[in-house]
Amino acid sequence: MPEMTELVAEANQFREDFARIRSEVGKIIVGQERVVAGTLTAVVCGGNVLLEGVPGLGKTELVKTLGRALDLQFRRIQFTPDLMPADIVGTTVMTADPDGRYRFEFRKGPIFTQLLLADEINRATPKTQSALLETMQEGSVTTGGTTHHLVQPFFVLATQNPIEQEGTYPLPEAQLDRFMFKVNVPFLSRAELNEVMSRTILKQSVEVAKVMDGPRILALREILEKVVVAEPIRDYACRIVLATHPDSEFAPEPVRRYVRWGASPRASQALLRGARVEALASGRAHIAFADIRHFSEEVLQHRVLLNYDGQAENIKVPDLVKEVVASVPEQAQ
């Protein structure tokens, strides 16, 4: 079976490349293994990531380190309440040519890059946040009736502060759904905090090697498409997503009681895409049930909206997602 032999070889190469990227990022980012793994998984899949955590946990530094390790064009937008959509996508201005004739010219904004860091995205108004919608889904920008396509690969890695903090605006549901993963960045442990302090005090100079580039990332996506997804595995992912809907036959009691809206079809696609990366990173060319569960929290937590009772009782969506996944059996009934 030459095709299977070739796939196994590609899977091994994928695992090596993935491990090299994690190793380079680990030179700068202390701990946060799951955060790094989730971000890298989404980047390899071509998905966008929303990183949520209090200031000072290294969210911005993680994205900058990825830009260096992946050798991608990198730009950063600091979101503030007075930021306007034109500040992101660009604007049309009137210019004069050498002959003195006036014409309209489109000046590209910082969104025209490959790796875009949307820093503190929820400090901008919803109007400005929505300027990213088309770009995140289609990889293009339409302005003045003209569509401009961005260079691939293109990713939006956004950071946000917890919505309980002052001066933040909740992201619209339509935009949240366009993030493949939402990754919660926890506070460091005692040992990790000591390591950060040591590196900061000693001011050790660390160089991040360029281990990959845009064409290689696109090649890895082609390998992902070859990973075998059996029918029961695909159905398992679908049943997990359906279990987040309160009117579904698969919904457990907490979902029926506390959830207003469940996850969208993009969630089932994200579960499979993330599972493919997890399978290849583990040296397998096929998806297992555990691979579907591995990133279920990152896929589902921002796509499940609580009803009034859920908000009043301060239900934690990540805990609810864990209950949902635990309630869905691997084999269909």
Task: List the defining traits of the structure above.
16 helices; two-stranded antiparallel ribbon; Rossmann fold; Helicase, Ruva Protein, domain 3; 333 residues; 11 strands; five-stranded parallel beta sheet; alpha/beta
Set down the secondary structure blueprint.
Layout: H1 2-26, H2 33-45, E1 49-52, H3 59-69, E2 74-78, H4 86-89, E3 90-96, E4 102-108, E5 115-119, H5 126-129, H6 133-138, E6 140-143, E7 146-149, E8 155-160, H7 173-176, E9 181-184, H8 190-202, H9 214-224, H10 231-242, H11 253-258, E10 259-261, H12 265-281, H13 289-294, H14 296-300, E11 305-306, H15 308-312, H16 317-327
Parallel strand pairs: 1-8, 1-9, 2-5, 5-8
Antiparallel strand pairs: 3-4, 6-7, 10-11
Account of the 3D structure:
The chain is an alpha/beta fold. It folds into 2 domains: 1-85 and 111-226, P-loop containing nucleotide triphosphate hydrolases (Rossmann fold, 3-Layer(aba) Sandwich), CATH 3.40.50.300; 227-333, Orthogonal Bundle (Helicase, Ruva Protein, domain 3), CATH 1.10.8. The protein has 16 helices and 11 strands. The chain has helices spanning 2-26, 33-45, 59-69, 86-89, 126-129, 133-138, 173-176, 190-202, 214-224, 231-242, 253-258, 265-281, 289-294, 296-300, 308-312, 317-327, and strands at 49-52, 74-78, 90-96, 102-108, 115-119, 140-143, 146-149, 155-160, 181-184, 259-261, 305-306. It has a 5-stranded parallel β-sheet. It has a two-stranded antiparallel sheet with strand order 3-4. A hairpin with a 5-residue loop joins strand 3 and strand 4 (102-108). It starts with a helix and ends in a 6-residue tail after the last helix.
